[in-house]
Amino acid sequence: MYIPLRMCAACRTHAPKAELIRIAAKDNIAVPDAAGKLPGRGVYVCKNADCIRLLEKKRIVGRQLKCEPSRELYKVMEDML
């Protein structure tokens, strides 16, 4: 059985797609994509607070998706933990 792997943008480790949070651009705003169905490029991050903080500190989402994430994006992701 094939299990799709994705890489965390913060810590650069590989994990099964279902164990990561996907972030996608919707109307030029970065939003968490819980269903994994939004079209276009996505950024994946581990489901732990350290990776989410690193993602925010290094501004990875903005560079990868070419849009500015809102400040509440990181709070919503931490609430998903």
Task: Spell out the blueprint of helices and strands.
Blueprint lengths: L4 E3 L6 E3 L3 E7 L2 E4 L9 E5 L2 H9 L2 H6 L5 H10 L1
Antiparallel strand pairs: 1-2, 3-4, 3-5
Structure description:
The structure is a single chain. This protein starts with a strand and ends with a helix. The chain has 3 helices and 5 strands, in the order βββββααα. It has helices at 49-57, 60-65, 71-80, and strands spanning 5-7, 14-16, 20-26, 29-32, 42-46. It is of the alpha+beta class. It has a single domain (5-80), classed as YlxR-like (Hypothetical Cytosolic Protein, Chain: A), CATH 3.30.1230.10. Strands 4-3-5 form a 3-stranded antiparallel β-sheet. It is 31% helix and 27% strand.
Label this structure with key terms:
alpha+beta; 81 residues; Hypothetical Cytosolic Protein, Chain: A; 31% helix
Per CATH, what is the topology?
Answer: Hypothetical Cytosolic Protein, Chain: A
State the strand order across the main sheet: 4-3-5
The CATH fourth-level homologous superfamily: YlxR-like
Q: What does the radius of gyration come to?
A: 12 Å
| Count of spatially separate domains | 1
Helix and strand composition category: alpha+beta
Percent of residues in helices: 25-40%
Summarize the structure.
The chain has three helices and five strands, in the order E-E-E-E-E-H-H-H. With 81 residues, the chain is of the alpha+beta class.
